[in-house]
Design brief:
By secondary structure, the protein is of the alpha+beta class. About 35% of the residues lie in helices and about 10% in strands.
Length: about 110
C-alpha cells in the first residue's frame, strides 16, 4: 500500500458490515494491518445512530435526514508502528465506542 506518495485516502469500516445496534461489533484486523504497512495515520470517524430515521431496516430504504459525525484525533504512524495490532484495535475500538455512546445520548 503506497498511499503517502500518491495522496490516496482509504476509508475502511472496521466492523466489516452495517450495524443497527448501539454497540460496535468487533473490529476486523485488515485496516490496521494496512495502516501499519503503509505507515499512514488512522483517523477514526464515528457516525451517530441513523437507524431507523435515515435507514429503514425493514424496507432497506434510505431517507434523507441529518446525522451526527465526529472525526477523532489521528493516531500517528509512529504510534501504530510501536503498538501491536490487537492493542491498537482495542484502543481505537474504545475511543470510537465512547464517542458513539456520547453521540447516542444527544
Amino acid at each position: 500500500v503506497s498511499t503517502q506518495s500518491t495522496g490516496l485516502c482509504v476509508w475502511v469500516f472496521p466492523e466489516g458490515t452495517r450495524n443497527t445496534g448501539r454497540k460496535l461489533l468487533p473490529f476486523k484486523k485488515g485496516a490496521f494491518h494496512m495502516a501499519k504497512a503503509a505507515k499512514c495515520p488512522i483517523i477514526p470517524v464515528v457516525v451517530g445512530p441513523y437507524f431507523p430515521k435515515i435507514f429503514n431496516t425493514d424496507t432497506k430504504e434510505w431517507h434523507g435526514g441529518d446525522l451526527q459525525m465526529k472525526v477523532l484525533t489521528p493516531i500517528e504512524p509512529q504510534e501504530i508502528q510501536d503498538t501491536d495490532i490487537d492493542t491498537m484495535i482495542a484502543k481505537v475500538y474504545n475511543l470510537m465506542q465512547t464517542t458513539l455512546d456520547g453521540l447516542a445520548e444527544k
